[in-house]
Amino acid sequence: MNLLKILNKLSDDQFYTKQASRLDALTGMADIGTKAAIAALPLGLGSLFTTTAQAKNNATTAPNAFAAGALTDALQLALTLEYLEDEYYRMGLDAGGLIPSADRTVFMQIAKHETAHVAFLKAALTSLGETPVAKPTFDFTAGGNFNPFTDYNQFLILAQAFEDTGVRAYKGQAGNVMGNKQILQAALQIHSVEARHASQIRRMRNNKGWIELDNGGNMPAATNAVYAGEENITQAGFNTANAFGAAAGSAAYDEVLSGSDAATIAGLFIV
Predict the structure, then answer these.
(1) Which CDD domains does this chain map to (predicted)?
(2) Which one of 16, 60, 122, 176 has the fewest beta carbons within 10 angstroms of its own beta carbon?
(3) What is the CA radius of gyration of the chain?
(4) Given pLDDT bands bounded at 50, 70 and 90, which one contains residue 124?
(5) Separation of alpha carbons 266 and 26, rounded Å
(6) How confident is the model at residue 262, as a pLDDT?
(7) pLDDT (0 to 100) of residue 113
């Protein structure tokens, strides 16, 4: 399916009114959603899902090609996700009267972290001889379906969804960056901070700090894609539910999010 066909499909009002709403797209767009999200990403990032496969095919003749391509593609994906978070908190802080004064200090600090992550990822890509992808144009209303900068509850919902997406996405790319020990260490350091962000925001919404079986904790169905697979209770062949039951066994292990799934979620907020 080429880009023109994807855009034509998404421009059809009947697609949203009869088949799925923009919000339902998080769980119902499936193949079209993945391709549309990839097409919407900045030039270069969409290749994450094609160049790695090509590099694998060439691995016998160029053993380092796949490792290098996977590393830079993973960093480009991470950069786009960090752009999204950085811009989201910046706009939230700039929206007068949105964030209560008691919570404002928290989001000011989180925003500084995201800005630092963006700077690191851009520097890392440049050091590898790659041009960092440009920051996309974001639409945090998802086509007018959210109002995060006028409704604080919605702001918190999307903040939790974005942070939980980032935590899972970083884990999903671990194998692609492990060939570079310095970047792997920095990625793990970022990952743990993103997890702390997620836990803090979840508690600000009166949720537990970790993900359980209940759709991430008091979240709308539109965010189901963020938590898909979190009900898994099997880890490396071990049934984690044996000791304390499915809920505890599932919550004890946070699942990964593939690059394509992360791109699909992020793509819904990219113009």
Answers:
(1) Ferritin_like (cd00657)
(2) 60
(3) 19
(4) very high
(5) 10
(6) 96
(7) 98
SS3 234: strand
CATH code of 117's domain: 1.20.1260.10
Structure tokens at 152: 């604080």
d(CA 67, CA 71): 6
Q: Return the percentage of the chain with pLDDT > 70, whole number.
A: 73
What are the beta bridge partners of residue 239? 234
Q: How far apart are CA 112 and CA 213, in angstroms?
A: 31
> Which residue reads 């918190």 in tokens?
156
**What residue spans of the chain are helical by DSSP H?**
3-10, 13-14, 25-28, 30-40, 51-57, 65-94, 101-127, 152-172, 174-177, 181-204, 241-244, 246-251, 259-267
Q: Which residues pair with 222 in a beta bridge?
A: none
Tokens of 96: 């007068």
pLDDT interval class at 243 (50, 70, 90): confident
In the three-class reduction of DSSP (H, G, I as helix; E, B as strand; rest coil), residue 239 is classed as strand
Cα end-to-end span (Å), the chain:
20
Q: What is the mean pLDDT of residues 88-100?
A: 97
Tell how far CA 105 is from the center of its chain.
Answer: 24
Contact residues for 242 (Cβ-Cβ < 8 A; gap 6+): 249
Of the candidates 77, 28, 25, 29, the one whose C-alpha atom is nearest the C-alpha of residue 51 is 77
Q: Which two tokens stand for residue 202?
A: 């979840």
**Distance between CA 21 and CA 177 in Å, rounded?**
36
Q: Which domain holds residue 230?
A: 3-267
Separation CA 111–CA 90 (nearest Å): 7
**How many domains does one find in the chain?**
1
Bridge-based pairing state of the strands 238-239 and 234-235: antiparallel
**241-264 as b/e: b if 16+ CB within 10 A:** eeeeeeeebbbeebbbbebbbbbb
